[in-house]
Amino acid sequence: MSSTLRTWRRLIMPDPVRAHRYQSLPEQGPKVLFFSGGSALNKISRVFKEYTHHSVHLVTPFDSGGSSARLRAQFDMPAVGDLRSRLMALADETVMGQPEVYALFTHRLESQASEGVLKEQLQQLVLGEHPLIACIPNPMKELIQTQLAVTQERIDDLFDLRGASIGNLIMAGGYLNNQQELDPMVFLFSRLIKALGEVKTTLDASFHLGVELEDGATVLGQHNITGKETALLNSPIKHMWLNKGLRKVAPINQYIADDRKGSIEGADLICYPPGSFYSSLLANLLPEGVGRSICRNPNPKVYLPNLGVDPEQQGLSLMECIERLISTVLADAKVDENSFTALDYLLLDETYDYGVIDLDRLREMKIEVIKTPLMISKVDRYDEGLVARALLSFT
């Protein structure tokens, strides 16, 4: 009979010994799991791979804006933009990696070019004649051409290629070419770019986000929630769910796959990082099985809140964000005697004004506040190196 126990040690913040040890042998680094989406964590991820090659990034497939929206509308598929950008952040950028593949995956077609020019550029890529793909050796080149050819064949004549990410087009072809499943394609492209970490969507499903506002209105679609592609919401968000489609309110959910469950339960550290509070962070916690997997993990869980202004957090103080984060986890957790906490530490920069912090309430919730230098001087932005070393100090 085995049991899971929680152990304690003296925490040094930051811990230079641990940072040095991990940086010396990143291939033996800890399993740090991030729930995130969007580009907010990409710079931190680029630094993080210097310390460990075992970070796990669960990103949202629910985005409905940008060039991902066109692919989603065309093929009824999950969003792949955040997946691609995080893979690129974790790519091996040394001479041992694949810089040609990295350049291709991060390239976007011109946003001002004519339809005819863009179709010709896509044709050159499919034929392997475009400069970005001509330099890639076989069999990798042929593999990429195959996926692009599938996308080219399946898009209709009205598909808008302006500003399209080549990486997204390649990944869409891989999805269509693998029985409409993301995982085989993600595994393949992770190998192609020699990703120094693991990236997965929380769910391999084509769902969208829906929210109810405090004024009773409902809004469907991530692109209508963020306040970036459309106007700010007229009222704060009261409740969020996963929705089937964008035309009507149709709540839906699905259990996470066993490998996601294993990644969450087996992580040495779970981090709730900066990013759009609802559409990037809480969205990742909605699928069934996420909350209970978090609470089955005895290791530290850390919340690193946003700096500056997040349009999605209108009306929410930091304390309310913490409460909402925990309630989202516990809604799925089915807490029992074998459960652990949803959140252990609030990691803050020592000088930034996050608003009112109720220390008594945090003690009641068994959450410890850790303050340490995390920011670039006089700029509302976290320093990637300081954040990486602070997080690694918990492991």
Structural notes for this entry:
The longest helix has 16 residues, at 318-333. A 7-stranded parallel β-sheet has the order 3-2-1-7-8-9-10, with helices on both faces. The protein has a 3-stranded antiparallel β-sheet with strand order 5-4-6, covered by helices on one side. It has 395 residues and is an alpha/beta fold. Among the domains are: 68-81 and 96-181, no CATH class; 208-243. The chain is built from 16 helices and 10 strands. 38% of the residues lie in helices and 11% in strands. Helix 15 links the parallel strand 9 (345-349) and strand 10 (368-372). The protein is globular, with a radius of gyration of 21 Å.
Offer a concise description of the structure.
By secondary structure, this protein is of the alpha/beta class. It contains 16 helices and ten strands. Helix 2 (42-48) links the parallel strand 1 (32-35) and strand 2.
